[in-house]
Amino acid sequence: MYQRVPTDACQWFYECEQCHAVLKPKPGDCCVYCSYGTVPCPPIQERGKGSCCSG
After folding, report:
1. pLDDT per residue as tens digits for the range 1-55
2. Please, which residues have CB within 8 angstroms of residue 42's CB and are 6 or more apart in sequence?
3. Domain coordinates of the chain in residue numbers?
4. Would you say which domain of life the source belongs to (predicted)?
5. What is the largest CA-CA distance in the chain?
6. 40's torsion region: left (phi>0), alpha (psi -120 to 50) or beta?
7. Cα–Cα distance between 53 and 48 in angstroms, integer?
């Protein structure tokens, strides 16, 4: 099952539903989607780099 990506905020932490590991953004990334996803998070897709939280 896929989790919906928020379009107006970053997600700083994500707990894996299977192994319960907690992921956090890698240095220089604004959120877990930018660190581990295949595309940047929606705020960056819509408004460009620097538009997501600490960007």
Report:
1. 456 666 666 778 889 889 999 999 999 888 888 888 887 787 777 777 766 665 4
2. 5, 6, 7
3. 14-47
4. Bacteria
5. 33
6. beta
7. 12
